Amino acid sequence: MRQILLTALIAFVAAIAGVLIGRALIPPRPAPSAELHTLLHHHLDLDAAQQAKLDELEAGFATRRAALEAELRADNEKLAAAIEAEHGNGPQVTASVDRSHRAMGELQKATLSHIFAMRQILRPDQAARFDAAVTHALTADAR
Question: What is the mean pLDDT of the chain?
Answer without folding.
Answer: 81
